[in-house]
Amino acid sequence: MAKTKKIAVIGFGNIGTGVVRLLYEKGIAGLELVKVVDVDIKTKRPVDLPASYLSTDWRLVVADPNIDIIVELIGGIEPAKSILSEALKQGKDVVTANKKLLAKEGESIFQLVSTLHRRIGFRASFVGGHSLIHELGLAGTAAKKFRRIYAILNGTSNYILSTMSREGQSFEAALKEAQAKGYAESDPSDDIDGKDTENKIRILLALISNSYRSAGHFPVEGIRDITQQDIQYADELGYSVKLVGVIEPKEGVFDVAVHPALVPKMSLLGSLPGAYNGTELEDEYGTVSGLVAPGAGAYPTADAVVKDLLDIAEGRTLPIPNSAAPITLGATEAVSRRYYLRFSVSDEAGVLARITDIFWKYNISIAAVIQKEAVSEEFVPVVITTHLAKEGDLQAAIDKVDKLEVVKARTRIIRLLSADT
Amino acid sequence: MAKTKKIAVIGFGNIGTGVVRLLYEKGIAGLELVKVVDVDIKTKRPVDLPASYLSTDWRLVVADPNIDIIVELIGGIEPAKSILSEALKQGKDVVTANKKLLAKEGESIFQLVSTLHRRIGFRASFVGGHSLIHELGLAGTAAKKFRRIYAILNGTSNYILSTMSREGQSFEAALKEAQAKGYAESDPSDDIDGKDTENKIRILLALISNSYRSAGHFPVEGIRDITQQDIQYADELGYSVKLVGVIEPKEGVFDVAVHPALVPKMSLLGSLPGAYNGTELEDEYGTVSGLVAPGAGAYPTADAVVKDLLDIAEGRTLPIPNSAAPITLGATEAVSRRYYLRFSVSDEAGVLARITDIFWKYNISIAAVIQKEAVSEEFVPVVITTHLAKEGDLQAAIDKVDKLEVVKARTRIIRLLSADT
Question: Which of A9, A395, B129, B403 has the fewest CB within 10 Å, making it most exposed?
């Protein structure tokens, strides 16, 4: 048995409290909590920690030679970045839950870990996917390759979309419900605009490519424009609408994007309930596997922190990207996808023919159509799903379609992720 | 980097061929294939291995001091047990895909590993759940506790049930289709009678309890009696019918069983397609997580073998049960479950009242009822789902109900696994 590691937790919020409960109240062999740092050490927390453990000065704690591992749980860029950098320079190992920091400043943090031969655990930056991050990160060893990763990585968005689907609510009503229940922040933009998913996808990309170099820009689209109408049509066609992060490596180039997508209802992603996260992977031999886990919450996050601490204490391998090789992203226009398209057309003969005529010119073939009899609206919806089509062709075709006089509003485009048949 | 490990594979069937392809054709750093043993080394395999690698004498290979790790892939009890025991005694580490051997003779194998301080990798005995086995096995370190594990661990049964549900086929027709497509053996009894699931549940139980002591008897029921009618009623009620292995630890006692069960359609287990395996875990804090992976196939199994080989070569921790403490199983009658019940009753007034009267006496309360107008049958089906009820009470009540004159056939009882409301 290795000697007990002395641990300081910096950040005494919900997650910090969760970690303190596990380390101090429950007690875990090999891990000893010695300090907890926060700017506010007056507020009463739901854990009975003696005052002697508390400090407001992270610099003092990070400089303490008795402490082996620093756990950073304050979030944001600064002082989180300085805390981690300073701790690494002091010869300490670190654990962090800070996905924003790793997505934006991963380059400098991982480089420091690499050059100083220290260790960093960041499962908690990824909560719902931490087994995945671990497996993928270690996979470098086995040179395991993936064809695709489709992942739902934002619990708030999934809660909203699941509620819209289950209860027939509008986006706005479902967002309000999510806020009332504590699943969404008062400013929910990071979650519903796809930025949180983007951060997690960037960390995942670093692990898969084994490079901490910043990957540049890829398309990120959120769920604000998803309507109840689209959710109902998707349901009728056998799909759920989900916010999905996509990574597809192709001959050294990565197709990467974050966007809402139709996924088969009866699939791991399509049936993912509430605030859960889920991931589907297809490896180079076509084997698909997946995992589901809570996407947030103080306890699951604290549990992920403790898993990292145990890996460090017990000398197990921790995955980190450790080269600075550039990551090449594919051109969006060249990616082949299936699409769900909702056209708003005037109720007259020959409209569908005019659309399919344009599709034919752009090599887009149709998989399914829903056109219902008009009731009383001034325009009627026509819903089409396509077979695989190049994103560039699709966009060009829709530009043409949207200029037709019979088309009364911008066509709604949602990607459709499923095996083409 | 540790020195390259020299590996012998014993058993050159489908999985053996898969492992040889990965180690010899693809090549994996740190792992060197040096021998392949089979009783038949004449038959041509789809891999171009020089004759100098081949041997028919496992004793010679196991005794070879140059070989570090023996991979056993022949299945069955003997000579697999002798191969593993001999290899361990010769100071070698071992990897096996043999779930039957570990379920039935795990006590002697694990004890040998423990006393000789050797290592054993057995992810491949578990294919679809190997990440799970790994996490659960290592969890001993963190003293992590689980409230429940619900797992679909047999690909053949899941393929048959999914086909029955999707295509409206009878059990017999779906079994024939599974056999034609290679998902079921000509003698499918191990798979469809729940024995294969039982073997995997026994291995899982050993890991969770950290004891290799044989756990004694628990109820095992297969899927031969599942009818299209029950699948349709389940569907109407929002459930899929699946073959599920259940482990629920309660204060040192384990409730363990294998049986068909209704699980919510829109859940990880309920939406599990084809020959996949899936697992749902709820930990002591109520956090639910899950994973999905192919349940069989040469490549996924070979991949699991290679994962174990890499863990051994790179010095990572491998989970094994390492005490001989007795495992206490709970009394079946005392377990509380929800139930799906299909009664076959004569079409006359007051039948439902007579059933509910008996239920009332046994503290069984009703969650849902489906009774449709009789068409032309001599008896009509009445379907009831219950809230939580003790298995002993339920059985006693059904015994009473089945003696009523208005009840025309034995009541069909299927357990229902879902949060009670």
Answer: B403
